Description:
Layout: E1 7-11, H1 18-28, E2 32-35, E3 38-39, E4 54-55, H2 58-66, E5 70-76, E6 79-84, H3 85-93, E7 97-101, H4 104-111, E8 118-124, H5 128-138, H6 143-157, E9 165-168, H7 172-189
Parallel strand pairs: 1-7, 1-8, 2-7, 3-4, 8-9
Antiparallel strand pairs: 3-6, 5-6
Amino acid sequence: METTGQLFVLSAPSGAGKTTILKQVMANIPRLAFSVSHTTRFPRKGEVNGVDYHFVTKEQFATMRKKKQFLEWAEVHGNYYGTSRPAVLEQLQQGQDIVLDIDVQGAAIINKEKNIASISIFVAPPSLKELEKRLCGRGTDSTDSIKLRLENAKNEMAQAASYDYLVINDTLEDAVLTLQSVIIAERSRSHRTPEGKRFNSGYLQ
């Protein structure tokens, strides 16, 4: 099944700032869409169903999984997350570049997908100490939850070398610039303009 868009897979430990970086990048780069994942976790304050995530019950998630409607799915921190296969394929076939915000388990599954080529990007904090500071600072997690997330972060960061690109979120401005540069470089490699348009004789007219 031929696709003309590019799939960017973005992973990071919880609290590394991936969501903040991605929002700024998507505001700056045209023709870049965000694939909204399905999850069984409850919405956090300010999150909107259908925008941040598709919030579903565990029963609904299990039904979709049985029908093979997920390109990838994983259990993270006791909740399930999954990427809709039909939605992603439709956007890619329309020439739309897509960003998947998924964990390292899901990224590994996507990497093995034979019919969809992807570019993987890992966002890391400058240190685990800084990550702990950020997790504590956002005030949404209990002490036990933060401890679990830090333990998971150690395992996740050990897999960063398997990704195509690494973005260190030391300062937000630099991290945004680095991620934008990756996307623009990959568009150039596939003979497209920084805006995502196919470069051919028609473009020059």
